[in-house]
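Kindly inspect this today.
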Amino acid sequence: MFSGCGISLITSLLNNSYSMAFQDELTGLLGRRALNDRMKGLGRQYVIAMIDVDHFKKFNDTYGHDTGDDVLKMVSKKIGDVGGGGIAYRYGGEEFCVLFPGKIADDCIPFLELIRKRVENHKMIVKNVKHRPKSAETGHKRRGRRAGSCTEITVSVTISIGVAERNENLNRTDEVLKAADSALYIAKHDGRSCLRISEA
């Protein structure tokens, strides 16, 4: 009985250690460490998509960090539901990555476009935007006074996507990742809320 309890405890500790090392705490997606680990054995055919939340800093500054966290959770949920064999990761900050092992870009575009449209069409309700205090202390003092007088507005966010696939010009995973990031930069430059494919 004691042996069984010990084994159960060790298994639980190992699972928790894995989650802490490989899973992003805020979004629940796999994290960058898990992505780096997976990229070691991808084989000769795969696609990498880099995804970024448009104007996220401005959104955060306008509506507050709690709402910013809600945006990241919402976006990560949409990205996490990607089809086509894609695996979603939080790359860092407001940037995400989707890996498609054994695929070519043409196979993946419809699934990525579906994510982009789902994020764009999602409406979020934000409270107390107009009168949001500059500091947490001021906000704490005001809450009792202004109960029942909150205002609400509906907001939405968009994402930009850059896509690259392994080919004869992009042999290494770091090259494909960099090409996807460059394509993301082009998507941002082209007006955001769009998808661009690397020409490398």
